[in-house]
Structures are given as structure tokens and as C-alpha cells.
Design goal:
By secondary structure, this protein is an all-alpha fold. Helix content is 88%, strand content 0%.
């Protein structure tokens, strides 16, 4: 019972976290860079 619930949750979380991290890493790096410069200027 515990194993099944944990396995399903882990698989869903792992896929969602992995996809979100990849998408977040790309737009996150160039996003805060120009935002910081704009705020400074």
C-alpha cells in the first residue's frame, strides 16, 4: 500500500520537477539578468 502510493507520487513528482527545472533553468538565467540591469538603471 505505502509502496504503491509513494511510487506513483515519486514518478509524477520526478517528471514534473524535471520538466519544470529544465524550463525554469533556461528562461530563469536570462530573465533575472536583464531585469536586474533595468532596475539598476
Amino acid at each position: 500500500m505505502f509502496h504503491g502510493g509513494k511510487g506513483k507520487k515519486n514518478k509524477l513528482n520526478g517528471q514534473g520537477k524535471r520538466k519544470k527545472k529544465s524550463l525554469n533553468t533556461r528562461p530563469n538565467q536570462p530573465h533575472p539578468r536583464p531585469l536586474s540591469e533595468w532596475r539598476g538603471e
